[in-house]
Write a structure and sequence with these properties.
Radius of gyration: 18 Å
Largest sheet: none
CATH topology: TorD-like
Number of domains: 1
Order of helices and strands: HHHHHHHHHHHHH
Number of helices: 13
């Protein structure tokens, strides 16, 4: 595996991990500091970087007064971050075993601890992003081990999950988050997630058109 491919896969893993964490639970002081101290990550939060309230409050107070309140509004109370709500005609959440996303997770032994994650169903935005993180991580391991057949299968699974699930509903939810966000941080987060999933799906689509041949994709980019 060449260095460019490894860097790209590592970046995908890191971004999926970050976005899953930020959409799953409230930000804490340590995570917020790591975002603010990393110029590359902070570049994805341009509105937040210039937000005047950052100068008015220390991180702890900023989180407690504004960010936690906004997270609760956007992810727990007023908006519904679940695929089934957007995909079912009756806009009802599917919390039981008939949830198609849960069936996929079961097939690949991806365990979702709903209580620990504080979510009501497996098709929560943060859980679906975490699933993509796990697939990307497994793909990188396969590539490092020289097992391109396993890597290919994992890339195919990522493409299918993005096409059939993530792209079908997340953009609608994220646009709602942008419209309803009460803080610069969560406005930027919604924009970050939206841009990333569309970009990553475009990458996977190019990979698919090259029959999941990493070398051919690299030559195309060159």
């Amino acid at each position: 595996m060449n260095d460019e491919l490894k860097q790209e896969q590592t970046a995908r893993i890191n971004i999926y991990a970050l976005l899953s964490r930020l959409t799953m639970s409230e930000v804490d002081e340590g995570l917020l500091k790591s975002i603010e101290d990393d110029e590359n990550i902070l570049s994805f939060f341009p509105t937040y970087a210039k937000w005047k309230k950052r100068d008015e409050y220390k991180s702890k107070e900023l989180i407690e007064r504004y960010l936690n309140v906004d997270f609760t509004n956007l992810f727990l109370l007023h908006l519904i971050p679940y695929e089934s709500f957007y995909m079912r005609d009756d806009q009802m959440m599917e919390t039981g075993g008939d949830n198609p996303v849960q069936a996929i997770f079961n097939a690949f032994e991806f365990k979702v601890e709903l209580d620990k994650a504080r979510v009501m169903a497996a098709d929560h935005i943060g859980i679906e992003l975490e699933f993509m993180y796990e697939l990307c991580k497994a793909e990188l391991k396969a590539l490092e081990n020289g097992d391109k057949e396993i890597a290919l299968q994992l890339a195919q699974l990522q493409y299918g999950f993005m096409q059939d699930h993530i792209i079908e509903w997340m953009p609608m939810y994220l646009m709602n988050v942008k419209n309803e966000a009460g803080t610069a941080f969560y406005f930027d987060l919604a924009d970050f997630v939206l841009e990333f999933i569309l970009s990553d799906f475009e990458y996977l689509d190019r990979l698919k058109k090259n029959e999941f041949n990493y070398d051919a994709l690299a030559e195309e980019k060159a």
